[in-house]
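User: hey, got a sec? need Epoxide hydrolase folded
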Amino acid sequence: MTVTPFRIAVPDDVLSDLRARLTRTRFTTASDATSWAAGTDPAYLRDLVAYWADGFDWRAAETALNAFPHQVAEVAGSPLHFIHLRARRPEGAPAPLPLVLSHGWPSSFVEMLGVARRLADPAAHGGDPADAFDVVVPSLPGFLYSGLPQGPFTRRGVAETWHSLMTGTLGYDRYGAFGGDIGGGVTQWLGALYPEHVAGVHITSAVVSADFEKEPPTPAEQTYLDALAAYDIGDQGYSEIMCTRPDTVAAALMDSPAGLLAWIVDKYRDWSDCDGDVARRWDRDTLLTVATLYWATGSIGSSFRQYYDYHLNKRVPRVTVPAAVTLSNEPAFKDYPKSLAERVFADLRHWNTPERGGHFMAHEEPDQVAAELQAFFGPLRKTD
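Assistant: Yep! Here you go:
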């Protein structure tokens, strides 16, 4: 398969149109006196939109992103964007173990860049160069520069595409996999489908995919499941509309950059480990880099496809390859019992609840995640 180098280059007219739209934004009034209680705070959004229109330097962000080796290849019949970082290791050192890092929604490849740097070039971050990994960071199908799949978007389908990328396109016979959210589901499927090629799997979002018909939940597990259901009542409105009427909301977000920004920032605040203070975790340039990528590619609607097709996902079979969980510190996984992960992973070798880093853990805590991956995958470099 042909792999083509790729550079991000947003046309000037797209940026000019974006600024013009931002300056014409009509803002709503708050529905609740408590800030953020009813969604993205209008006052916060007004300030962030003003900075996006007159202050944010996209070209500087673009240059920083293009410092990474972007590539595009046709995989499973659709264009797939990915970053491929080769390990910087001592001459004569054993071949590095490749790792594929998978993001979720409303995220992007940007989430994984800090971790990817630390893994591919540990010496530059105070580590041992012998610990370097090859790192592959794909954009999920329908996200940014990757095309939608030819069939439904399922986590199993993405795992099949990732395996084709890693083994067929890039020529790796054995690799490890890491991810959270959608990427965590993809990672589990990689371990379930390709145990002869996947050295191990590491996730941050310990999703529930156990078969409770065969073994009912324990009291601790049921307590967690009840708490999760209660949390979802207040949080799942966004997913309900994207599961049932994605094109309706996408029409608004494709036309209004302020609306797009509100939709994305709401989740960056709610799901990250920021205690409700967006600025504690996210500087404005980071948020606007992600939003500009979604805007320039017009991919917010296609990123909803995995929600619309969600009902087509099947339960992940029991995963037998070595597994690790570094549990996300976000409301959905508060008090998540280890036993639920053990129902899915037959060989759970690493379990950690650092209580730092939320839904976007790799972005929020890159040092922590890189250390966790090095600790887990280091011993797996050689076949057991």
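Quick note: The radius of gyration is 20 Å. Let me know if you need anything else on Epoxide hydrolase.
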